[in-house]
């Protein structure tokens, strides 16, 4: 390790590693990680969740095809599924570190904190300095401050469970809970969800969310809306949960009520970087109030969705900025958001609610896809989509989808919107047929 670097990056998640790789060849870089190299997404977020979904989706597809060529719905062997997941996640920290080192990026594993704007003290008491510093330390689960809080588990615990509890309760009906509750239910647990209002997933089209909630209820999940968890206590067999309306029993309780920025262990007071209760404050160049310190990814106080591809996009942007390849403010492409599951809800661009409230500006076309060949073939009985156009230019500016395979159309529409493809340009293309993508020509 050197004693001085061009750039020091705190955090080796999708944001920090994207910035580090972007700087390779132009700048000397040190990446400091105090936990798992690779960060939340591949270790305890998106990727392990979708490994578990491999079995859940396969089971769901088989269940849909009963009396249409398949007999008997398989059960999920949680132990084997977890071993499959761990086969992937166990390689991530060492693989990420090796990848960084192989690219000529120095790494440090351990705690570190600012001494001043340019100097950082490492856990072993050595001091390193840098011309510029990037904060990419992400978020961690926000913990409820209630009696019995030590009994509560997080999404990271759930994603690494050795055995599946008989009864699981999730607190908060956000993205994390809804996705993990569906996995737990399909894998064989009884599942309850406690939510403090009756409008989960506000960023998504509400008619589609209502259908998702109904599907989850039909699958046996119980929602407890408009109530707050007040206390947890241990009983002989599990836990007693007390809300302001009722008492529930459960074997395992996962709290997923949002995530807090990891900005509190960096001793930012020593360098003067300002934060809000929602994260590190940055300008439109992702620069903090200290001109040599930047912040990227989930740790920022931002209105943009806190997602892996957004974090990497910001990492690549700041790398370009530091290499003086750009001086422009960050300009985000459209950002697709999706709730994964056996019913997926996805949204990109102008929201459905906003479009409906401004009929002079937007046209909304609603499609029931259930009887379309693509969805009929897999017996997807709730497939729907909405295409939102600018009323004047007719350009597609928004898209919403509800389907067990919604992610494919969502990405196709993101491409259409980013490239501003016209209806005519799409009709002039040839797609592999029959497929999700070939339906694009019927939807535009
Ligand atoms: C259960 C779950 C499922 C998710 N699913 C999806 C999904 O399907 N799709 C999607 O796009 N996004 C998903 N996300 C969100 C996604 O994981 C994050 O948006 C993404 O990881 C953010 O990247 P990041 O680099 O900003 O932060 P992180 O990935 O959190 O990385 C930050 C890194 O900084 C380290 N760090 C923290 N403090 C310090 C410190 N003081 N010093 C040094 N290092 C530090 C952390 O250990 C971590 O490794 C999910 C999140 C969760 C929790
Ligand atoms: N598919 C994906 O892209 C995906 C999946 C999972 C997570 N993520 C990312 O991770 C982030 C964190 O997810 P999350 O689900 O923890 O947060 P979230 O903000 O999406 O949802 C938390 C929910 O808990 C509710 N809540 C807050 N306090 C509560 C309380 N005391 N009792 C009951 N409910 C309460 C909130 O109203 C909110 O609906 C997401 O915002 C997203 O950026 C993305």
UniProtKB/TrEMBL annotation:
Signal sequence annotation: none
Disulfide bonds: 41-46
Top-level lineage group: Bacteria
Domain FAD/NAD(P)-binding positions: 5-315
Binding locations of FAD: 50, 298
Residues reported in the UniProt entry to bind NAD(+): 172-179, 258
Keyword Oxidoreductase in annotation: yes
Descriptive protein name: Pyridine nucleotide-disulfide oxidoreductase
Species name: Lentilactobacillus hilgardii (strain ATCC 8290 / DSM 20176 / CCUG 30140 / JCM 1155 / KCTC 3500 / NBRC 15886 / NCIMB 8040 / NRRL B-1843 / 9)
Keyword tags: FAD, Flavoprotein, NAD, Nucleotide-binding, Oxidoreductase
GO molecular function list: glutathione-disulfide reductase (NADPH) activity; nucleotide binding
């Amino acid at each position: 390790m050197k004693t001085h670097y061009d750039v020091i990056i705190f955090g080796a998640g999708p944001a920090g590693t994207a910035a580090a790789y972007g700087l390779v060849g132009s700048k000397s870089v040190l990446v400091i990680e105090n936990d798992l190299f690779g960060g939340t997404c591949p270790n305890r977020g998106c990727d392990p969740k979708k490994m578990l979904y491999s079995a859940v989706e396969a089971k769901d597809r088989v269940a849909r095809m009963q009396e249409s060529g398949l007999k008997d719905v398989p059960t999920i062997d949680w132990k084997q599924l977890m071993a499959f997941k761990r086969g992937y996640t166990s390689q991530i920290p060492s693989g990420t570190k090796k990848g960084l080192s192989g690219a000529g990026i120095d790494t440090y594993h351990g705690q570190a904190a600012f001494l001043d704007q340019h100097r950082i003290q490492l856990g072993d008491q050595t001091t390193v300095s840098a011309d510029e510093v990037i904060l990419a330390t992400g978020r961690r689960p926000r913990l409820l401050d209630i009696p019995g809080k030590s009994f509560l588990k997080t999404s990271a615990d759930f994603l690494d469970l050795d055995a599946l509890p008989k009864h699981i309760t999730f607190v908060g009906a956000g993205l994390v809970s809804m996705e993990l509750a569906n996995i737990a239910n399909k894998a064989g647990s009884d599942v309850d969800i406690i939510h403090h209002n009756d409008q989960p997933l506000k960023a998504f089209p509400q008619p589609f969310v209502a259908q998702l909630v109904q599907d989850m209820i039909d699958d046996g999940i119980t929602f407890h809306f408009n109530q707050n968890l007040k206390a947890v206590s241990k009983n002989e067999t599990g836990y007693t949960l007390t809300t302001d309306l009722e008492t529930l029993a459960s074997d395992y309780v996962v709290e997923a009520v949002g995530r807090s920025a990891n900005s509190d262990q960096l001793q930012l007071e020593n360098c003067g970087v300002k934060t809000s209760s929602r994260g590190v404050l940055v300008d439109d160049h992702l620069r903090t109030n200290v001109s040599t310190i930047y912040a990227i990814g989930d740790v920022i106080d931002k209105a943009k969705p806190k997602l892996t591809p957004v974090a990497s996009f910001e990492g690549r942007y700041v790398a370009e900025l530091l290499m003086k390849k750009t001086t422009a403010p960050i300009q985000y492409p459209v950002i697709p958001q999706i709730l994964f599951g056996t019913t997926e809800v996805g949204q990109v661009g102008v929201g459905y609610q906003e479009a409906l409230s401004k009929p002079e500006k937007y046209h909304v076309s609603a499609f029931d896809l259930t009887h379309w060949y693509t969805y009929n073939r897999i017996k997807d009985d709730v497939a729907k989509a909405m295409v939102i156009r600018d009323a004047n230019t007719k350009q597609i500016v928004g898209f919403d989808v509800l389907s067990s395979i919604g992610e494919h159309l969502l990405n196709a529409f993101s491409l259409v919107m980013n490239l501003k493809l016209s209806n005519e340009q799409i009709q002039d293309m040839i797609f592999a047929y029959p497929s999700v993508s070939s339906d694009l020509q019927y939807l535009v």
